[in-house]
Write a structure and sequence with these properties.
By secondary structure, the chain is mainly α. It has helices at about 1-10, 20-30, 35-80, 80-110, 115-130, 135-150.
Amino acid sequence: MIPVIQKEVVDTKKWISQEEFLDAIAVTNSLPGPLATNAATYVGYKLAGPLGSLAAVFATALPSFLIILVIVIFFSTVKDNIIIQNIFNGIRPAVSALIFFAVINLIKFLGFNKTNILIALGSFIAITVLNIHPFIAILVSGTIGFFFLRKGRIK
């Protein structure tokens, strides 16, 4: 969903800038709930206030809710079907590719330098190896950014 939202709100509609979108992702990534829904809520609020955020929540969540509802109703009857299993096996790499695409786009925009790479690697290791909660990693990364990556200090 993130690449779709990014393409629509940044590239096609030009409702917000790439930098604002990255900020939205950073903020909404630390909130509970689906990232795409949180990001859409942020954009909706930025464009039309509380009613915009409400519309964005419904527009983002309703299709997924309906799809999941249909899957739940019919899944128990088809879960052992080899065709259905193969379809899901094909969908998994596509979802991974979409996430990877979003990461590559964010990296291109950020213009990674050695400090950004160290923060990213440190966060990755903290979350995956040290089992640190992602919220803590985001908090620490934001603190490092505040003190060391202010515009005009380190590039």
